């Protein structure tokens, strides 16, 4: 049990705990977690700083602080993440949307004909952030998101509904091996598992211990998912359709080779804000 103190005092204690655990920007995270627990805006918290924090809220707040100090991602604690200027629900059943993935949306939009009805498929959709960001940017798009994880699809469906896209986006709990919509898509986008199996145990604790390994582990070479998707796409996609992959920083040449070997053309590589290879695009 924690002593009854003012909101400001509890923030100071929480910030110190997060700082001792090596959390970047501990004061900022403590403040945001308090706002989350108390359903406060930033202004509310400023106005209430000298008030005593109720016991129930205090215990809930310090529970999150302790979990965060042990490495649990902030986004899982709040159940929310931001991507492409949009808010998304997320959970430990999905990867956390990250800014580096936004370049995949940019590259996909650059390859879709503006103002024309088109269909997009997102393979391994997770939260649905890639598909939803595309549909929010281009109102004449429709799309489907597929994922083997029914729990992930539940999260994606919540996001579809929250963004008012229920009539344009279909979320299906199915893997790409069993999906039969290849020939309908004008563009396929995917952030598949691409981390080599042997590397998983070396990842930061916040990733290794909390994010779903099924969405991270790309097999011995890190290329298992790319091989499967490219082979299926080469057989099933219509001529002229595009495929856009997020990749690991050192996988551009290998994924390019897989695409070339399968008969794709117009292959290009885009870098993220850190100037690392992040996206490979190609046309059948």
From TrEMBL:
Stated name of the protein: Release factor glutamine methyltransferase
Keyword Transferase assigned: yes
Keyword Methyltransferase: yes
UniProt keywords, alphabetically: Methyltransferase, S-adenosyl-L-methionine, Transferase
GO terms under biological process: methylation
CDD domains listed in its UniProt record: AdoMet_MTases
E.C. no: 2.1.1.297
NCBIfam families named among the record's database cross-references: hemK_fam, RF_mod_PrmC
Residues that bind S-adenosyl-L-methionine: 124-128, 147, 176, 191
Domain Methyltransferase small, first and last residues per copy: 115-197
Catalyzed reactions per annotation: L-glutaminyl-[peptide chain release factor] + S-adenosyl-L-methionine = N(5)-methyl-L-glutaminyl-[peptide chain release factor] + S-adenosyl-L-homocysteine + H(+)
UniProt similarity note: Belongs to the protein N5-glutamine methyltransferase family. PrmC subfamily.
GO MF, one example: peptide chain release factor N(5)-glutamine methyltransferase activity
Species name: Henriciella barbarensis
Residues that, per the record, bind substrate: 191-194
InterPro entries, per database record: DNA_methylase_N6_adenine_CS, HemK-like, N5-glutamine_MTase, PrmC_N, RF_methyltr_PrmC, SAM-dependent_MTases_sf, Small_mtfrase_dom
Annotated function: Methylates the class 1 translation termination release factors RF1/PrfA and RF2/PrfB on the glutamine residue of the universally conserved GGQ motif.
Release factor glutamine methyltransferase N-terminal domain ranges (all copies): 14-79
């Amino acid at each position: 049990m924690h002593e009854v103190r003012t909101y400001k005092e509890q923030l100071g204690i929480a910030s110190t705990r997060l700082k001792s655990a090596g959390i970047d920007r501990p004061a900022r995270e403590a403040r945001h977690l308090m706002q989350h627990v108390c359903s406060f805006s930033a202004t509310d918290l400023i106005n209430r700083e000298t008030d005593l924090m109720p016991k129930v809220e205090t215990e809930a707040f310090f529970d999150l602080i302790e979990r965060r100090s042990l490495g649990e991602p902030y986004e899982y604690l709040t159940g929310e993440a931001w991507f492409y200027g949009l808010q998304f629900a997320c959970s430990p059943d999905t990867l956390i949307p990250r800014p580096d993935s936004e370049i995949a949306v940019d590259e996909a939009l650059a390859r879709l004909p503006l103002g024309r009805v088109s269909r997009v498929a997102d393979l391994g959709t997770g939260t649905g952030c890639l598909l939803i960001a595309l549909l929010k940017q281009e109102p004449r798009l429709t799309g489907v998101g597929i994922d083997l994880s029914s729990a992930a699809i539940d999260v994606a469906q919540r996001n579809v509904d929250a963004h008012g896209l229920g009539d344009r986006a279909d979320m299906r709990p199915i893997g790409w091996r069993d999906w039969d919509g290849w020939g309908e898509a004008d563009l396929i986008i995917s952030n598949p598992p691409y981390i080599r199996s042997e590397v998983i145990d070396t990842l930061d604790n916040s990733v290794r211990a909390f994010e779903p390994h099924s969405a991270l582990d790309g097999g011995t070479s890190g290329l298992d998912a790319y091989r499967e998707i490219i082979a299926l796409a080469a057989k099933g996609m219509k001529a002229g359709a595009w495929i856009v992959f997020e990749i690991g920083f050192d996988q551009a040449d290998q994924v390019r080779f897989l695409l070339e070997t399968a008969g794709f053309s117009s292959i290009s590589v885009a870098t993220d804000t850190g100037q690392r290879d992040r996206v490979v695009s190609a046309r059948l």
